[in-house]
Amino acid sequence: MSEDTTQTRTAVVTGASSGIGAATARALAAQGFRVVCAARRTDRIEELAAEIGGVAVSCDIQDPDSVAALAAAVPTCHVLVNNAGGAIGADRVEDADLDDWRWMYEINVLGLVRVTQALLPALRASGDGVIVNVGSTAGRWAYEGGAGYTSAKHAVKVVSETLRLELNGEPIRICEVAPGMVRTEEFSVNRFGGDQAKADAVYAGVDHPLLAEDVADAITWVATRPSHVDIDELVIKPRAQAAAHKVHRS
Ligand code: 8X3
């Protein structure tokens, strides 16, 4: 089936206030989508929405009422990009702060499920919905100090697989895009509690870590395949990164 280019397609992007989310909102808008930019930081998403001709909806994905309000604003949704997420800390399991783990499970997993539940009627209403869950290579491998984040991202992979099984037969595709090392303004700085030196060390000597735009390009490609083409998973890393522990540094 070829795409119906006569109707404006709506995309919802969570975590659209920065990084991969903002880049994805721009990339989808460039492909003709009406993009609903959802995030907590209203000033940022309003600026972005004005730039791309989209719509800003303030949304905290941890708050059921806030997510319900997002769903109410989007009766029809062709593409949902569950991008909001993040990491805190790099402690060994032995020393881990369970409140950090709880936050990571909340934001990366429960928030994604909450938004998906709320928007499934709108995805069905589109007649041809695509859900792109932004996972991570942290959902493919373990590394020391990463278990709070890697276990949450493994959950994103499994939730994506389960949803694909459960929705089989419906006109909704589910893809997990799993990036490796991406240098964004906030991910590592947030992870290390604002410590810029620690954040910079993550990328030290790496020739071209991925940029948010590289991942946005992959998400947009997934979201614009013909209706019968389902991309289950897409792992994307910089050339310099072969595995968690195998990163070429000059
Ligand atoms: C980020 C990838 O390697 O920092 O999602 O966990 S990693």
Write the layout of secondary structure elements.
Blueprint: E1 10-14, H1 19-30, E2 34-39, H2 42-52, E3 55-58, H3 64-72, E4 79-82, H4 98-126, E5 129-134, H5 147-166, E6 172-179, H6 187-191, H7 196-202, H8 212-223, E7 233-236, E8 241-243, E9 246-247
Parallel strand pairs: 1-2, 1-4, 2-3, 4-5, 5-6, 6-7
Antiparallel strand pairs: 8-9
The structure holds 2-hydroxyethylsulfonic acid (8X3).
The site of 2-hydroxyethylsulfonic acid has 9 residues, from loops.
Keywords: Oxidoreductase
InterPro entries: NAD(P)-bd_dom_sf (IPR036291), Sc_DH/Rdtase_CS (IPR020904), SDR_fam (IPR002347)
Family: Belongs to the short-chain dehydrogenases/reductases (SDR) family.
Description:
The protein has helices at residues 19-30, 42-52, 64-72, 98-126, 147-166, 187-191, 196-202, 212-223; strands at 10-14, 34-39, 55-58, 79-82, 129-134, 172-179, 233-236, 241-243, 246-247. It contains 8 helices and 9 strands. The protein has a single domain, classed as NAD(P)-binding Rossmann-like Domain (Rossmann fold, 3-Layer(aba) Sandwich), CATH 3.40.50.720. α3 (64-72) runs parallel beside α4 (98-126) and α4 (98-126) packs parallel to α5. The strands form 2 sheets. Strands 3-2-1-4-5-6-7 form a 7-stranded parallel beta sheet, sandwiched between helices. Strands 8-9 form a two-stranded antiparallel ribbon. The protein is of the alpha/beta class. Helices cover 42% and strands 17% of the residues. Mean pLDDT is 96; it is low at 1-5. Bound molecules: 2-hydroxyethylsulfonic acid.
